[in-house]
Each structure stands twice: as C-alpha cells, then as structure tokens.
Specification:
Elements (H helix, E strand, L loop, with lengths): L10 H11 L4 H9 L1 H16 L14 H65 L6 H8 L9 H5 L17 H8 L7 E5 L6 H11 L5 E5 L4 H12 L22 H22 L4 E6 L8 H20 L2 E7 L2 H8 L5 E5 L5 H16 L5 H11 L3 H9 L3 H20 L11 H24 L13 E3 H8 L4 H7 L3 E3 L4 E4 L2 H11 L4 H20 L13 E7 L5 E8 L6 H8 L1
Parallel strand pairs: 1-4, 1-5, 2-3, 3-4
Antiparallel strand pairs: 6-8, 7-8, 9-10
Organism: Ampelomyces quisqualis (Powdery mildew agent)
Protein name: AAA protein C-terminal winged helix domain-containing protein
InterPro entries: HTH_AAA, P-loop_NTPase
C-alpha cells in the first residue's frame, strides 16, 4: 500500500478512479446486461485506449507500464550520457589515431628524405674522389692508340714481337722533368700555364707524366667554346652529375635551382674542394686538375668570366695546397687575360725540339712505322725544312718519301698564308680595302721578319738549331701601324706570340714561306703599290666636295680663317668668272 500510494497521484490512476465513480454510459449498461463475456472482451480495448496503445498487442507494441516509465527515465538519461561519452571517446581516439598515423608518416618520410640526402651527398663526394684514383679515360684512350706504355695483350705475350717495335717514341725533353714534378704533386703552391704553338708536345708531356703514376690524383678535361659543353666535360672529368640524378623530389626536397653553366661549374668546384680537403688529410698531396686547350674558350664576356672563375679557384687552392690547376693553351690571349690577376701563376713556354732531339725523334718514329734507320743526311735535311715541330716530324715519318712530304708541308703553309693575307696591288677595288688592310699588315710584318732572318743566317748558332727571327710585340704593332690585327693573325697560326711578348713566324715552314714570298722580284714595289692604293682610297674617303651656289650677278663668298685668340689669319674671296661668248671664241680663232 505504501508503494502504491504515490502511484495514485499519477494522471492515469486519477482517470481510472474517476471513471469508476462516474455514471456509466447507456451503451456500457447494455453491454453489461449482455453478459459477463462481452464485458471482458471490451475491457482490454478500453484499457489500451486509456494507456495510449494503438492496435493489437504485439511483441514490439506492448502496453506501457507506469511503474516502468517512472523508473526507466533516469536510466535512459544515464544511458544517453554514457553513449555520448563513448561517442566522444571514439571520436577522440579516431582523431588521435589519424594524427598519429599522419605524424608517423611524416616522420618516416622526413627520416628517409634526410637519410637519402646525406647518402646522396656522400655518394657525390665518393664518386668524385674515385675520379682521382688510379686510371683515367685519357690514359686509356692514349694506351689504345699506343701513345703511352700499356700492358701487353695475350697475343703480344704469347708471340715473339720485334724489340724494335717497342722503340721509345717519347723523347726526353728539358721540360719533362719539371712537368713530372708538377703532375706528381711534388711542386706545390703554384698553378701553371703551358704556353706554346700547336704541335709542340704540351699535351703529350702531360699524358706521359700522368702515365708514370697511372693517373693517381690527376684528372684531365678538354675545354670548349660553348659553356654548356664545358660544363658537361667538367662533370665527366670529375664524375659529377650536377644533381641531375637526384630523386629528392620524391620526398618533397627541392633540388638545386636551375641556373646557367657558370653556377654549375662553381658547384662542381665546391665539391672538388671538399674532396681535396679529404685527400690532403689522407695522402698529403694536392689534386691535379688539367684543363687542356684553354684557348678554345671564346674571348667574350662569358669566356672571360669562366677564366676568372678558374683563376680564382686556382689561386685559392694553390695557396692552401689543396689542388694544382694546369692550364694548357696555344694562344697568347689566355696569358694576357690571366696576367691581370696572377699572383701564384707560373708560365712554361714550350718550344720546338732542338736539332739533336728532333733527329732522334724522327729516327724513332721511322723505326716505329717503317722498321728502317734513315741516313743522317736525310734527317738533317728534314730538320732544315720543317724544324723540330713534333706534329710535322710525325707526319713526315709516316710518309714513304720524307723529303717530298716536307716540301708538301712547306707548300701548304705558304698556300695558307696567301689564302688569308694575299695583297692585290694597285688595281684593287675600293670595296676590298678593309680586307687588304688586314692582308697588307701581315705582309709588312712578314717582310720585316724576312729582313731580320737575313741578319741571323750568318750567326754561328743557326748552323745547329733553327732560330726563328723575332720582333717584340710593341715593335710589331708599330711596323704594322695597327695594334689589333696581330691578334687575328695569331689566331690564324700565321704569327706566334710567346710568353715574353716576342712575335715570330708560327713555324719553320711558315718562315720559309715568308722568305720565298718576300724574296720574289718586284715584291717591294708590289707591296708599296698596294699600300699607296690603300692610302689613296682612305684619302678619297676623307675628301669632302663643296658646291657653292648663288654666285651670279657679282655674288661673292668670303672665307676668313682666325686663330685661337680671334685674330684674322687669312681672308679668301670667291666670285664667279664671266664666261666667254661664242663670238669671242670666233674672234680668237681668227
């Protein structure tokens, strides 16, 4: 009873009590009279109506229990709170799981990226250091051409080979020992410029010095006029790919920005400096970087910037004994450019062989190619015609008739000179005046060298070695009356300029061509006529024609010349002269 008392106060309980005390409806009275079974059948429907239940009772549509409704309210609220807490926990866990997964992915990606970057940088230095270990592509190519010593092949080791075939083709020179010490790393604190005409053996001496140590610590590259090609060749020489093989972009690591060839060359030199520091701690000798044919670099703004970059690095490395740069050039302008900022540069002038060494080289070449020993008289005659230029000696030794080959070489040099610098005489057209200025200056200088050679022919030294006549550079420019043409003649290998600024013929055959041309009868008059014609054309170009008008009926022009102070120094009056009439002419004839 105590438990039911509060329930009696509920709205459903009060409605049932009121219904029991209320006067029954006539319809319900009739139902009650019909019998007890009828009343029992209608009670559940009424009860469902009062309780709010719709339809017949089903397992999912049970009648609500007031007691359950009163007790289930707080439980459902608690369950909702618990479900909400579980939902927040699940959301927070999912957020934490996603954040942890993302963080772990980023961390792993960062670790892999940093690890790859460190490995790539280490691999770059390792590859560059490997480029300076024993063996070099230059030596391999030279050995395949039998230019340097190489290991015998299986056929050569199992078959008898004539000892004369292994004749030493490398002629000992005075400069070879000095070059050896430089390439071997014994000479430190300097960078070097090898200067000389083409074919004098500069590259051969460098290759020979590298072959003696099997290229250990040395690397050679060929220069080129195009900076992009120079960049590629430097990368091949140092085994440096300029980060083109870097896959750091897979890890969102930005590689080196795109730039010009100069900046890539600077990056390569930075890596080379690190390798040089490492090797100096391990070995104690500087690296040797050889830049061959540096004269191929263009003498323009980009080419001068490249030479300046190379010289700056060479100066720094020479001061710290990290690396020794050797620059090989055929042209004088490279020396002029490097001379501006040179502090530790040492210049080596490479000349032709003397008579004794040239004859020995020719004898060895002839034994190598033809298995014969030529007579001394023939060797002397060959030297007298072509001198001690190694490239000429090699070509002559390969020929069947050496004297005929010498004459052909001399004739080719003469044709080359005339094709570029032939003069046309007094009958030349004024349209070719600029070209004739260039040609006439070369002829004037060639004539001066020819006259100088007549004085040196009687000297005792000329009986043993070729001493080409030479003129100082400033004197040569004075003779030519132009200061800019000598550079173009030098580029055409007509004249040569050494490190002491002395101008001479490029070779002995070229000097012989000068002698033949300038000794021809009438050459002096022909050259003078050409120069007079050039002067006449220039004078005609500087002449101005003045036309005066309106001088009729006694009109005059007065020209006054004054000095710097304003005083009159001259006075000229011009007026027309009255022409003669026809009648006057007839009278004069009569």
């Amino acid at each position: 009873m105590l438990m039911l008392r509060p329930l009696s106060r509920t709205p459903i309980a009060r409605a049932q009590a009121a219904f029991q005390h209320h006067q029954p409806h006539p319809f319900f009275s009739r139902i009650r009279q019909a019998g007890p079974a009828r009343v029992k059948a209608c009670q559940p429907l009424f009860a469902r109506t009062l309780s709010g239940q719709s339809g017949p009772p089903t397992p999912g549509n049970d009648a609500p229990n007031p007691i359950d409704d009163a007790t289930q309210g707080p439980q459902e609220e608690e369950e909702r709170r618990e479900a909400k807490r579980e939902a927040w926990k699940s959301t927070a866990w999912k957020m934490f799981e996603a954040a942890a997964t993302t963080g772990a992915s980023i961390f792993i990606l960062a670790c892999v990226g940093i690890g790859y970057t460190k490995y790539y940088k280490w691999n770059v230095l390792e590859k560059m250091e490997n480029a300076f270990r024993e063996g070099d592509p230059v030596l391999e190519m030279a050995a395949s051409g039998k230019e340097v010593f190489r290991e015998p092949t299986r056929h050569e080791a199992t078959h008898d080979v004539d000892d004369e075939d292994d004749c030493d083709r490398w002629i000992p020179r005075d400069e070879q020992m000095k070059i050896d010490k430089i390439v071997w790393g014994e000479t430190k604190g300097r960078y070097h410029l090898l200067l000389g005409e083409k074919g004098t053996g500069k590259s051969s001496m460098l290759i020979d010095a590298m072959a003696k140590i099997n290229g250990e610590g040395c690397s050679m590259m060929e220069a080129h006029a195009d900076l992009e090609v120079f960049r590629v060749r430097l990368g091949r020489c140092l085994d440096f790919e300029y980060h083109e093989d870097n896959i750091g972009s897979l890890f969102s690591i930005r590689g080196p920005r795109d730039a010009g060839a100069i900046l890539d060359i600077e990056r390569a030199f930075n890596k080379l400096e690190k390798v040089a520091l490492r090797r100096r701690k391990q070995i104690g000798r500087p690296l040797i970087l050889i830049i061959n044919q540096a004269h191929l670099i263009r003498d323009d703004e980009d080419g001068r910037d490249l030479l300046e970059l190379i010289q700056q690095r060479a100066e720094q490395w020479a001061a710290s004994n990290l690396a020794t740069v050797i620059i090989n050039s055929d042209k004088y302008w490279v020396f002029e450019r490097l001379k501006h900022h040179a502090t530790r540069m040492e210049v080596h002038q490479i000349k032709d062989l003397c008579k004794e060494r040239a004859m020995q080289a020719l004898r060895n070449y002839r034994m190598k190619y033809w298995k014969e020993k030529p007579a001394e008289s023939i060797l002397e005659e060959v030297y007298d015609k072509i001198g001690g230029r190694l490239t000429f000696l090699n070509r002559v030794a390969k020929s069947d008739d050496m004297i005929t080959k010498c004459n052909q070489i001399c004739e080719l040099e003469k044709i080359w000179f005339l094709n570029n610098c032939a003069i046309l005489g007094e009958e030349m057209d004024d349209d070719v005046m600029d070209q004739q200025k260039f040609a006439s200056t070369a002829m004037v200088l060639a004539n001066a060298l020819y006259r100088t050679s007549l004085e040196t022919d009687s000297s005792p030294a000329h009986a043993t070695d070729h001493i080409l006549p030479e003129i100082p550079l400033h004197r040569a420019r004075f003779i030519m009356t132009r200061s800019d043409f000598i550079r173009k003649h030098h580029d055409l290998s007509i004249f040569s300029i050494d490190s002491h600024a002395m101008v001479r013929a490029d070779s002995v055959p070229m000097q012989r061509a000068f002698n033949e041309i300038c000794s021809e009868p009438g050459f002096e008059r022909f050259l003078a006529a050409t120069l007079d014609r050039i002067s006449g054309i220039e004078s005609l170009g500087r002449t101005k024609e003045l036309t005066f008008k309106d001088l009729w009926d006694g009109g005059k022009y007065r020209l006054t010349t004054r000095d710097g102070e304003g005083g009159v120094r001259g006075l000229v009056e011009m007026e027309t002269v009255e022409g003669k009439k026809d009648g006057d002419d007839d009278d004069d004839d009569g």
